[in-house]
Design a protein that fits this description.
Layout: E1 5-8, E2 15-18, H1 31-61, H2 68-85, H3 87-97, H4 103-137, H5 142-145, H6 148-166, H7 168-172, E3 175-178, E4 183-186, H8 192-225, H9 238-270, H10 272-275, H11 281-293, H12 297-305, H13 307-319, H14 323-328, H15 344-354
Antiparallel strand pairs: 1-2, 3-4
Helix pairs in contact: 1-2, 1-3, 1-12, 1-13, 2-4, 2-6, 4-6, 4-8, 4-9, 8-9, 9-11, 9-12, 9-15, 12-13
Domain G-protein coupled receptors family 1 profile: 51-302
Family: Belongs to the G-protein coupled receptor 1 family.
GO molecular function: melatonin receptor activity
């Protein structure tokens, strides 16, 4: 049967439907490029699955890691993990076959899930930043703001907003196969206004919110360090700063990996007829695979910068050969660590030492 992908002409909005047999063989990607892209994606999938499963198991096993802040860390890991299970293998198949052969249903489904993952990631990173801001800058109100009930409400709201932000892609028709990146993904040239809205709502606004939260934390840390606010001295411990730096690095890496693609989208949306033709294909492809690669980085950052996660990683890996060890600390309910509400002082001290 005739299989088509959409190509948006630069001089207008018409769509040309190309069949596989009509495509020019000269347009097929060089073998070296395909091999490089496949290698990057395989590495991403393996590290993504292993790393994020370790993060989820670490929080599940370790009572000390079961706190409000780490609920969003687990949620972020789920957002990163889901793309390695479904969309990325389809992209890898397209690279190997140099064509999309999985049909339109998988094209639309993989594009939608990839959108959920991307938007869910930045929204969860934003939720983590707000959580860190409240914990460090408004510690006296933290227990009330992030009770078990409220935390799960915030988590549900995060994913509800993610779904609301992703669904319009179906109405705009922006999920299309792009042979340059072997992916069914967001087509930046479908609608200039929609592309600008996506970049602003899904990237720029969350980045500004996160930047504000972390800037306020930095200011407080500097003030405490120079004794401008000595009363806060006991509330900002070295472990607080280390944990804050861990999540700050997660945010920085996300921004660095996704900024090129979003900036390209903004530039194309402003003047599609002139800018789209001038974007080098190597830059476009590199920006996409940088964004894909980001999904495997967070778990690595936790392991490198957070001692508690690093210890749990080692324990879980060792437990693969000794199953009884894996069950030692996971016999209690996963929410047990959040059931009781200690005094604010105890909560601050405990979370300062153990959460991300």
């Amino acid at each position: 049967s005739r299989r088509c992908w959409s190509v948006i002409w630069l001089n207008g909005s018409s769509i040309n439907c190309l069949s596989h047999n009509d495509s020019d063989p000269a347009q097929k990607s060089p073998a070296g490029l395909s091999t490089a892209l496949a290698s990057v994606l395989i590495l991403t999938i393996v590290v993504d699955i292993v790393g994020n499963v370790l993060v989820i198991l670490s929080v599940f096993r370790n009572k000390k890691l079961r706190n409000a802040g780490n609920i969003f860390v687990v949620s972020l890991s789920v957002a990163d993990l889901v793309v390695a299970v479904y969309p990325y293998p389809l992209v890898l198949t397209a690279i190997v076959r140099d064509d999309w052969t999985m049909g339109d249903l998988h094209c639309q489904a993989s594009g939608f899930i990839m959108g959920l993952s991307v938007i869910g990631s930045i929204f969860n990173i934003t939720a983590i930043a707000i959580n860190r801001y409240c914990y460090i800058c408004h510690s006296l109100h933290y227990d009330r703001l992030y009770s078990v009930r409220n935390t799960f409400l915030y988590l549900g709201l995060t994913w509800l907003l993610t779904a609301i932000a992703t669904v319009p892609n179906f109405f705009v028709g922006s999920l299309q196969y792009d042979p340059r990146v072997y992916s069914c993904t967001f087509a930046q040239t479908v609608s200039s206004y929609y592309t600008v809205s996506v970049v602003v709502i899904h990237f720029l606004i969350p980045v500004l919110v996160v930047s504000y939260c972390y800037m306020r934390i930095w200011v407080l840390v500097i003030q405490v360090k120079h004794r401008v606010k000595p009363a806060q001295r006991a509330k900002v411990k070295p472990s607080d700063v280390r944990n804050f730096l861990t999540m700050f690095m997660v945010f920085v890496l996300f921004a660095v990996c996704w900024a090129p693609l979003n900036l390209i989208g903004l530039a194309v949306a402003v003047d599609p007829s002139r800018v789209a033709a001038r974007v080098p294909e190597w830059l476009f492809v590199t920006s996409y695979f940088m964004a894909y690669f980001n999904s495997c980085l967070n778990a690595v950052i936790y392991g490198l910068l957070n001692q508690n996660f690093r210890k749990e990683y080692k324990t879980i890996v060792l437990a693969l050969c000794m199953p009884r060890l894996l069950r030692t600390e996971s016999s209690r309910c996963p929410t047990e660590g959040m059931r009781t509400k200690p005094s604010p002082a105890f909560t601050n001290n405990n979370m300062a030492e153990v959460d991300v």
